[in-house]
Structure formats: C-alpha cells, structure tokens
Amino acid sequence: MRYPVLVSGGYGTFGSRICRALAADPAIEVIVAGRDGEAAGRYAGELRDAIPGGEVRALSLNMRASDLALKLKKSGARVLIHACGPFQEQDYHAANACIEAGVHYIDLAGSRSFVCGIGSLNAPARRRNVLLVSGASTVPALSSAVADHYMPEFSALTSINIGISPGNQTPRGLATVKAILSHCGKPFQRFENGVWKTVYGWQGLHRRRYPGSMGKRWLSNCDIPDLQLFPARYPGMETVAFYAGLELGFLHLATWGASWLARWNRVQNWADHAALLKRISGWFSGMGSSLGGMHVALDGLDYSGAPNRLTWHIIADSGDGAQIPCVPSILLAKKLARDELTQRGAYPCMGFFTLKEFINELSGLDIRQVIVNRNLD
Questions:
Q1: Phi first, then psi: what are they for 58, rounded to 5°?
Q2: Could you give the domains of the chain?
Q3: Beta strand 79-82 with 55-60: parallel, antiparallel or unpaired?
Q4: Which of 143, 226, 264, 339 has its CA 20 to 30 A from that of 240?
Q5: How many Cβ atoms are within 10 Å of 67's Cβ, its own excluded?
Q6: How far apart, in whole angstroms, are the C-alpha atoms of residue 102 and residue 73?
Q7: Furthest-apart CA atoms within the chain: distance in Å
Q8: Model pTM?
Q9: Dihedral through CA 219, CA 157, CA 344, CA 107, nearest 10?
Q10: Pairing mode, strands 131-134 and 345-348
Q11: Are 33 and 40 within 8 A, CB to CB?
Q12: SS3 (DSSP) at 177
C-alpha cells in the first residue's frame, strides 16, 4: 500500500510542483485536491500520463468546508499538504480538521503570525498523535537549515540577514501577490542591535549584489516568521533582518512608492487590490528573466574571537526557482511516508531536514549554491 498524501491547491503554482515530485516517489500515492474538481481531475490525468507507475487521483475539496475533518477521513489521506494561501487571511481551521481526522498537516505559510502561532495546537496534536508543521517553505524552513548548517563555523553568531529576489518571469499566483502586498507600508517589529525596532514593509530601500549575472537587485523590508523565531532559536543573536526584491527595478520602486501611501493611510491595504495589480504586472511578464536568488548572510565571531562572515546564496534559472519553496513539504511528506519522522505536536518548520537533504532534492534542476566566506578586518 502506498502512503496517501493529499495536496490542497494541488493544481496551483506550488501545489502542482509538489504533486509532480511526490507522484514520482514509488512509496507515495498523490491526491490532487482543490475547490475545482475538474481542474484537479485534469492535472491528475496529466501526472498519470507523465509519470508511468505513479498513483494519482483527484478530489474536489474546499478547505473551508465545515465538514473538512470528515472529508479528510473519507479521502484516506495520511498527510495534508496545505498549499492554498494566502495564510494572512486564514485561521487554523484546516489544521484543527487534521487533528480531528488524525491526519498529519504541513503548510507553506509565510505569514509571521500564522507560523509562529501554530504551537497553540501542540497539546491537541500530541493527544491525537499527529504532526503539524507550519512554514514548510523558503522561510523559515530553508533559511533555518542554512543557519543550522553553518553555525558550527562561528563561536558566536550575532546577525542573520536574509534576502530573496525572484526572476520576473518566475510564476506567481494570486495568493503570492496578496501575501507580498499584505505588509506593504505596514509596521512590524524586527530585532536589531539587541532591541526590537519598528520598521515598515517594502521600505528600507537598498541595492545588493548577487553572484554572476544576477547582478544588483533592489531589496526592501518584508515581514516573515524568521524575524520572531530566530532570536529565540539562536542564543546571542543581536540582529535578524529579511528583505525581498523584484527583478524589474521600476516595479520594485513602484512598490516602494506604494508603501508610503499605505504608511500615510492613503491606502488601507494593498492586498485588497492584488488581482488588479497582478494583471498590471502581467503586462511586463515578458521582461526580465527567470533568474532569481536568495542569500543568507551570517555574521559573528570565529573561534579566535575575530569577526567572521559567511554568505550563502542559492541561484535559480530556467524557471526552476519556483521549486525551492516546494521542497520542504516534499521532504517532510517523504519522511513521514517512510516513518522517518516520529515527532508529534505542532511546530514551525525548523530542524526537520538538513541543508544537504534540501539540495539533494533539487538535483537535475538549474539551481546552484554559491558560498562566500571571508574574515572581516
């Protein structure tokens, strides 16, 4: 018997990639789920044709249904991968349904409050012997794996600076656009030089050079779970910062300008206009490239007490960058299918896999690591 994994939003931007990767695993049966049963059925058929021997079926499923727990039980799923964002607009309805149904739960949330609050379900999840993992995406899952991997090179790790700049031609669904816009111009707290400081989304405008042909990209403040999780995870931490950027400079600068309108209360919430803004950005979809990247810059002291800096990059091209946020949930599902994850309870996605496991899952894609390590004067 194969291990059944249900992917909500299984025909969407990220869910479709997760389904494809899991369908190629002989230990797993994939259930492509979503509100549009016909779309789920079409994509399930595509996967069966593309992956000989893959076991794939479709299910019409609304993640807000009042009887979601019953539907999960009837599906036979052992794990739900919740890929229907944006999570800024959601509560823990799906996670609670999984607890009731006795089904493991994984989501791709990037919302700070959503990911950091998942621990409130720890006790009921333990009682039902299920694992709930929130934030199985680029942050905090990959970012923490990088920090964990390189932390032994420091006697003291004092600063983590993270940034992401996707290529303009990388696919972005409406949920992703809503998530990006939800904190545009909004205040949030960041740990900086040992104190909590208020900063504003999509401000803090600056340029950063990435390796190779990525060159310089504009970056601005963004709110993510790491800003709250990392000061507690890494003792002695003094600063944790995260920035995001758009490849096309004029689009990034337009978003920066829009942040001021929200900060001055001229616009209540830019996420309310996400559909229109996504259509406008689509006018420029042929510009730029699919070349994008991420950096994690670590600062601290080496074992002689001298300042030490290491910067890790991951660079993606050929449209493969969209696979990066999908890998954490894929790894967790595979581990659960092979009974390699015995932990139960509710947690943010940190410490469940290694950086090596993550990179191995990307084998064959146009994705590479670049590491810069230099001591500071």
A1: -115, 155
A2: 3-138+324-357 (3.40.50.720), 139-320+362-375 (3.30.360.10)
A3: unpaired
A4: 264
A5: 11
A6: 8
A7: 62
A8: 0.94
A9: 0
A10: parallel
A11: yes
A12: helix
The residues, ordered by sequence, that sit 6+ positions from 289 with a Cβ below 8 Å of its Cβ are 167, 168, 169, 247, 317
Hey, what amino acid is at 97? A
* Cβ(325)–Cβ(12) below 8 Å: no
Distances (CA, A) of 61 to 67, 191, 357: 10, 40, 31
Residues forming a β-bridge with 33: 8, 59
Query: What percent helix, strand, coil does the chain show, rounded to 5?
Result: 40, 30, 35
Distance separating alpha carbons of residues 193 and 299, to the nearest angstrom: 12
Closest Cα partner for 270 from 294, 246, 254, 249? Answer: 254
Rg (CA), the chain: 20
What token pair was written down for 5? 């994994």
Amino acid at 65: A
CA distances from 362 to 81, 109, 247, 358 (A): 19, 21, 23, 7
Decide if 344 contacts 126 (C-beta within 8 A). Answer: yes
**What is the CB neighbour count within 10 angstroms for residue 285?**
11
8 Å CB contact between 292 and 167? yes
Alpha-carbon torsion, ordered 188, 190, 194, 197, to 10 deg:
-30
The first and second tokens of residue 77, run together, are 């799923």
Token pair of 345, please? Answer: 């309870």
Nearest-angstrom CA–CA distance, 274 and 251: 14
What span, in angstroms and rounded, lies between the C-alpha atoms of 115 and 135? 6
Per-residue pLDDT tens, the chain, 377 aa: give them.
Answer: 899 999 999 999 999 999 999 999 999 999 999 999 999 999 999 999 999 999 999 999 999 999 999 999 999 999 999 998 778 778 999 999 999 999 999 999 999 999 999 999 999 999 999 999 999 999 999 999 999 999 999 999 999 999 999 999 887 777 778 888 888 999 999 999 999 999 999 999 999 999 989 999 999 999 999 999 999 999 999 999 999 999 999 999 999 999 999 999 999 898 888 888 888 888 988 898 999 999 999 999 999 999 999 999 999 999 899 999 999 999 999 999 999 999 999 999 999 999 999 999 999 999 999 988 765 43
